[in-house]
Amino acid sequence: MSPMTPARVTGTPGRTRVLVIGGGITGLAAAHRLREHLGPDAEIIVAEQAMRLGGKIHTVEFAGRPVETGAESLLAARPEAIELARAVGLGDAIVYPSAAKPALSLGGELLDFPAGHMMGIPGDPADVAAVANAKERPDNGLPILEPGADMSVGALVRSRLGDEVLDRLVAPMLGGVYAGDVDRLSVRAVMPQLAAALERHARLTDAVNEIKRPPSGPRKPVFATIDGGLELLVTATSATARAEVRLGMTVRELRQTPYGWEVIAGPVPDPIKIKADAVILAVPASPAAVLLRDVEPQAAAALSGVAYASVALAAFAFDHVDLPERSGFLTPASEGKTVKAATFASKKWPHLGRRRQIVRVSMGRLGEEALLQYDDATLAKTALRELGEHLGRRLPEPLEQRVDRWGGALPQYAPGHDARIAAAREALGANRNIAIAGAAVDGVGIAACIASGQRAADTISMKLANRR
Ligand SMILES: Cc1cc2nc3c(=O)[nH]c(=O)nc-3n(C[C@H](O)[C@H](O)[C@H](O)COP(=O)(O)OP(=O)(O)OC[C@H]3O[C@@H](n4cnc5c(N)ncnc54)[C@H](O)[C@@H]3O)c2cc1C
Known about the structure:
Layout: E1 8-10, E2 17-21, H1 25-38, E3 43-47, E4 59-62, E5 65-68, E6 74-75, H2 80-87, E7 94-95, E8 102-106, E9 109-112, E10 117-118, E11 121-122, H3 153-161, H4 163-178, H5 187-190, H6 192-198, H7 204-211, E12 223-226, H8 231-241, E13 244-246, E14 251-256, E15 261-265, E16 272-276, E17 278-281, H9 285-292, H10 297-304, E18 307-318, E19 328-330, E20 339-344, H11 345-348, E21 357-363, H12 376-391, E22 400-412, H13 417-428, E23 434-436, H14 439-442, H15 446-467
Parallel strand pairs: 1-16, 2-3, 2-17, 3-13, 8-19, 17-23
Antiparallel strand pairs: 4-5, 6-12, 7-12, 8-9, 10-11, 14-15, 15-16, 18-21, 18-22, 19-20, 20-21
Helix pairs in contact: 1-8, 1-15, 2-15, 3-4, 6-7, 9-10, 10-13
This protein binds flavin-adenine dinucleotide.
């Protein structure tokens, strides 16, 4: 802020006010939980720099259907996303995928993706023998990880089960979530349950089998989505939280004061000063690091070390096209394609209807940012041509197509991530009413982000209660 520009101050004196910075699902889940804890009188402000809420969740109308340009599914195997959807009145809109399974595109063929694995790591090498040469290496009888230790997914799988399991199964699976480099992804951050099991087992397959032991009772679906689009979860969460949403409001400075926090937000020529008793930072790592630079340099350093990968998505709608009865496919980087995965959305999600076939194709891995520089037409043409190559036939002209770019959208948790974030949280201190949350720190998936936002709200509410 220029010293010459007086900042406008907003707020009602005497009421507890919490400022949530970032209007993605993390910030909104935090706002929702804050409302539950703090009651109707608290002021909960959500400052969002974009002109819409949702961040990486964005539903658009495409070929007459609500189609996701970013995230498309909720992990239903853990409770947070489904419970939030129910809590904000969307229980009846929760829908589940069909029984169609994804394929592995290898050597120009669509093969069944083997069953019985955890993120591509088999519980028995024989389970994946059809697509990868896997043989468990001899072990030394000691647990693979010491308590609290970490290693990269690449180093773990390559040393225990060999290159093909890593390159053909694990890398494409993790690539679908992180678009990352398996040699730079932390086992503890991306597969925390496996990391815990590795502290007890000398064999990787034993650790995998311990985790994937089938639960008793009926099998529950692993994924879900919202009929009408995931953006409904965004708007319903925001409405239920009764937060004061400020769109187009970039928070640029964060300062600690004797009573709490003061932020400078809004456009540089017309800044707004917002005072708050507490702050929840629910933004990606880079803006979080900038905001924390003067508040707590150690926390800022931990956040600025989180790298991000970029992806582009092309969506196509076809009137008549014969797609395989699969939910889509993944393909290893060794196949040399730009397309790394495709979802046959209308096969995967019955609620989208089958009259029109909708296919979403994702492109880009860590280090392939230059891809995003191509214009839409070039990206769509590449995606369509390669889609045809994967399917073994030339595809007709689509009825509609669109390209969406997500630059720097997917955080990469390097080995040691969890320990660095824990240290950052400790440095931020028990006596300061500030919390960090979201995909930058606690997990990329929507369910993990919701859990992270809720935990931040629990922490802040408790601190505010203790202050009274
Ligand atoms: C292409 C793609 C597909 C995905 N698919 C899935 C999927 O199918 N299932 C799944 O579970 N997850 C998926 N994910 C991951 C998931 O969508 C995200 O990790 C999650 O939505 C992140 O939520 P968030 O609130 O932590 O962050 P974001 O969604 O990034 O929200 C942060 C918000 O902060 C705002 N902001 C940033 N700086 C400031 C500032 N200074 N002041 C104010 N506001 C600011 C941003 O504009 C943004 O709206 C996908 C992600 C991408 C990119």
